[in-house]
Amino acid sequence: xxxxxxxxxxxxxxFDLKHNYLSEQFSNYKSILKKFEKVILNNxxxxxxxxxxxxxxxxxxxxxxxxxxxxxxxxxxxLSLKALNIGEGDEVITxxxxxxxxxxxxxxxxxxxxxxxxxxxxxxxxxxxxxxxTKKTKAILVVHWxxxxxxxxxxxxxxxxxxxxxxxxxxxxxxATYKKTFAGKFGDFGCFSLHPLKNLNIWGDGGxxxxxxxxxxxxxxxxxxxxxxxxxxxxxxxxNSRLDTLQAVVAIELLKKLKFITNSRINNxxxxxxxxxxxxxxxxxxxxxxxxxxxxxxxxxxxxKKLRDKLLKTLIKNKIDAKVHYPVPMHLQxxxxxxxxxxxxxxxxxxxxxxxISLPVHEFIRTKHLNKIINVIKNKLDDK
Length: 384
Ligand SMILES: *Cc1c(COP(=O)(O)O)cnc(C)c1O
Hints:
about 375 residues, alpha/beta, Aspartate Aminotransferase, domain 1, Aspartate Aminotransferase, domain 2, seven-stranded mixed β-sheet, three-stranded antiparallel β-sheet, about 15% strand, binds pyridoxal-5'-phosphate
C-alpha cells in the first residue's frame, strides 16, 4: 500500500547539506527517553502534567495567558475556525502561497477559501483584501510565510472595518515579531505547528494555539477534548486533538534550545543575504527594521524560471538540498479545481513559485556550508 508520504526522507541521504537535520538534533535522544519513563510509570498519557507544563512555558515565552496544546498545526487552524463558528456557507480570505494545510483546514472546517495574491515578501497583499470581501466573508487567515509576519497594522484595520476575525497561521513564525509583538498575538487565534521540521519541533505531530481572550481559550479547550467539561458532561460536540503527553516532554526539551535554534537561523540567513545580494541574477528579499523574521525557510529568487531551474539542478548536483516551497501554488493544485481558479489569477504568487529557491539554514548549517552554497550560486549565475 502506498501511503503518500513524500520520499524525500529517503532521498535526503544523498545530500551533504539537508533541510532534514533530525538525526543530528536528536543524537542525544537517550536523555529524553529517560524523561519518558516518568510519564509511562504514572500512566499520564492524555493531557498529562507535561502538557500543562508545556502550555505554561509557551505562555511565558510569548507573554500570553491563553495557550492550548493540540494535535497538530492543521488542527490548530481548523479548531480556531470552529471556535469562531466559521463553517458551511462562510468564506475565509487567505493566500494561495502557502502549505496545503492552511487551505485544508479551512475546507475541513466547512468554509470556502478565497485567495488574495501576495507581495514580493511572499505574504498576503493587504491592498487587495477589501476587493474580495463579500457578505459571506467571516475571517482573514494570514500566513506569516517563512517566519516573516504579514503587514498586521493594515490587515487589523481592514478586519476591524468589516468586523472580520483574524486567524494567524504562525506555523513558520514562533517568536517572530512585528513592531515588537509576537506572531500569534495579532489575531483571535495564533496557530503553531510542532512538526519535526518546524523551528520548534517534536518526534511526530503536534501543535498549539494562542487565544486572544479567555472565552476563546475555554472554547478551544473544550473542542480539543470532545467538548467535555468533565467525565460525564458533553457540553458541545468536539474533536480529539490533544498534544500527546510524551510529545510534550520532547517539546519542553527542545524549547530550551529554541533561542539558539532561532538565532542560528537568523544569523545564517543574514549571512546568505549579505553575499547572495551581490550576485547577478539573484534577488534577495527586502528586509524591514520593524520585523524580526525567524527564517523557517531561507528563500531567494532567480531572475527567471529557466535560470532558476538550472540553478536548482546545479545545487542538487553539488549535494545541496535546495528546494522550492512550493512549485505549484494552492489555486493551481488539483484539489482547488472546484473553486475555478486558473493560471494568471495571482501573478505575484505564480512568479514567486516559478523563480524561488529555498535553502537550509537550520542550526547545523555552518559558515563553511554557507560559503559552499554561495560559491555554487555565484559560479552558476554571476556570468550569465
Ligand atoms: C506545517 C504547516 C502547517 C501544518 O502544521 P502541521 O503541524 O503539519 O499540521 C500549516 N501551515 C503552514 C504554513 C505550515 O508550514
